[in-house]
Amino acid sequence: MTRNEGTVDRVLRVIVGLALLSLVFVGPQTLWGLIGIVPLATGLVGICPIYSILGIRTCPIKG
Asked: What share of the chain is helix, strand, coil (3-state, %, to 5)?
């Protein structure tokens, strides 16, 4: 799979992922915060399966 996320997209995903994941430890302490693993993982890897299906690319470089 080729990278389809740009730098800004990746940074935002990591921030949102960490914020959601923090809900497991602070705040309401609910397991719903585990959903933060998804944006965190896609932000770290740089590949979003949904973007691939929809043909969306925020990454300016092909590859």
From this structure: 60, 0, 40
Residue with tokens 């770290």: 44
Whether the CB-CB separation of 9 and 47 falls below 8 Å is answered with: no
Is the pLDDT confidence value at 63 over 70? no
The answer to whether 48 touches 14, Cβ cutoff 8 Å, is no
Over the stretch 9-26, which tens digit does the pLDDT of each residue have?
Answer: 999 999 999 999 999 999
Q: At what angle do helices 7-22 and 37-45 cross, to 10 degrees?
A: 150
Say how many residues make up the chain: 63
- Enter the tokens of residue 30: 């609910």
pTM above 0.70, yes or no: yes
